[in-house]
Amino acid sequence: MTARDAVSGFAALSHPVRLALFRTLCDQAPQRASAGELAHGFDIPPSTMTGHLQTLERAGLIKAERRSRFMLYSLNPEGTRRLVRYFVDECCHGRPELTGTDEEAAAAAALMEAS
């Protein structure tokens, strides 16, 4: 993943509605949902919902599949993994004290104190 791709992914997730949509699709993975189904709980017009979904799709975080006259949306696991890997590897340099569990962070801190 390039830095440009990562910026696109982070930008897509920077809006509260898109972040909520992404989380919903993560929770439902691997199931698909229509824009109408995803719109429940949001007080926004359908065209705005479609725009948010298209932004997430262009960033490679979700997939869209046409079924008759409906679009069905689902999580793109590979795109999501690539963005997370970029963040961990390129931004945090894989440092367990920044990216791991509390136990890994404690172990890393103990190693740093011991050296």
UniProtKB/TrEMBL annotation:
Domain HTH arsR-type: 1-95
The organism's place on the tree of life at top rank: Bacteria
Gene Ontology terms for molecular function: DNA binding; DNA-binding transcription factor activity
Keywords: DNA-binding, Transcription, Transcription regulation
The keyword Transcription is assigned to this record: yes
Signal peptide (UniProt feature, chain positions): none
Stored InterPro entries: ArsR-like_HTH, HTH_ArsR_DNA-bd_dom, Metal_resp_trans_reg, WH-like_DNA-bd_sf, WH_DNA-bd_sf
Pfam families named in the record: HTH_20
Family annotation (NCBIfam families): HTH_metalloreg
Protein name according to UniProt: Transcriptional regulator
